[in-house]
Amino acid sequence: MRVRAISFTAPRSGSVTVSSTAPTLVARCVHGLEPTLAAEILQLGAGVITYLGHREIHFRTRRPRTRAVALRTPDDVFLLAARCADIGVAKQGVSTLARLADLADLDSLARGRRRQGGPGTITGIEVSASFLGRRNFNRYDVEDAVGRALARRLGVGYHSRRTGTAPPAGYAGWRVTLDGAHATLMLRIADRPLHRRDYRRRTVPGSLHPPLAAAMVRMADIRPGHTVVDPCCGAGTLLIEAAAQQPQARLYGFDLEVTALRASHDNATLLPVAFPADTERRLTPAGDIDPARYNTADTRWRSMLDSDVGPGLFTWPEVEGLPTPDSGGAPAVFSQADAGSSPTPDSSINRVVFARADAGRLPMPDGSADRILSNPPWGGQVAGSGLLSSSTSLWWAELRRVLAPGATAVVLLPDLDDLPIGVRHQLVPTHLQRVRVSGAESYLVRLVAPRTRRGRKASPRNERTPL
Ligand SMILES: C[S@@+](CC[C@H](N)C(=O)[O-])C[C@H]1O[C@@H](n2cnc3c(N)ncnc32)[C@H](O)[C@@H]1O
């Protein structure tokens, strides 16, 4: 990683207009991801960090096309347009915010936006405002004051969010924040917030905020050729973000819900998705499954099968291309084009397989995963079902079983109550990060599996424990 300079200094108070030669970019993120975002900015060579604050990082670059819009962990990236003192709580102060629009160097902002890969022209204005603390005005008052002043200066239309309708396509997004010390005006670089991913057509309850998923993927340090598993994949966010960061990994997503698997499939259409041609039949509700089609030979699961839920539900779907206990862990993979035909192993590009399975009993051989990524179904909007309906213990047991010696899991937990179960399964927590998304706190935890398994000597697989 090339670090040119870092200085964590507070921004200057008073008015600041942006220099046209070295624009200041502002990346905003989920609270708790600031260090992760700072590391990504430096690693990408996107700029020199000049300020690191609450949900916000400022960085400067003279280089055109710094690839700021290629960052995956921010919610959004802006050009700093102008800044003045916060107006306080009184509503009378709101009209003075129009001054921000006067302070902004609109020509150099438009040029800077274009140079950073944003749209070339500003055909209209829309503004989104937020503030810290109680105020005697609302966000729309701020948005309208600044938006109308900007539109006047530029001679273009203004769309007020007060109407509750979406702005017309092509309207430039501006952001105003009042943090108690400063009122800050920023111009969004991309034509829409970066956290809105192109791939995301569908979500399921509990679907991850994509920048948070991207942060988990960074933490997992996925290497070319790695086998990556999400045992409760939902709409596939983690694996799709993994594919974006590491185009040479094999990805396996499992879920018990057919709707989740369909969502994963739809979201991953830009990836080579292994979804067999007879998917619909394979994804029928458990009661309809013909047990003859499934691998029930493995006796480890027989007792669960017969005792807990009756036959069918917890059998292993024989999805072509999945590693089986007998294949020695060598996963065969196949692409969307191959679906329904014979598997074509190919490690040169990303492969993703989504299949119906219980995370309490994964269709993966022991020690076959280099990385596990997961936000499991508890503590949030989704409850565990199947083998996870009464306890989380089997999820942890499967993490331990499936991870290769010395391999890494990165998980998002609603609290730390469960962590001792992971530790009892010999998974060692090596990193913990508290994050706050939509008002709810969660914990990003990285765990490492023991380097040896069942008395055997470790055979590291392309392994390096990330710092
Ligand atoms: C919090 S959501 C995961 C969301 C996902 N990361 C995303 O971004 O869309 C948890 C998922 O676990 C699934 N689930 C619940 N019990 C399960 C089980 N026993 N085995 C596999 N998946 C299960 C749910 O259907 C749900 O899709």
TrEMBL record:
Residues 197-250 form the Ribosomal RNA large subunit methyltransferase K/L-like methyltransferase domain. InterPro entries: DNA_methylase_N6_adenine_CS, RlmKL-like_Mtase, SAM-dependent_MTases_sf. This is Ribosomal RNA large subunit methyltransferase K/L-like methyltransferase domain-containing protein. It comes from Microtetraspora fusca.
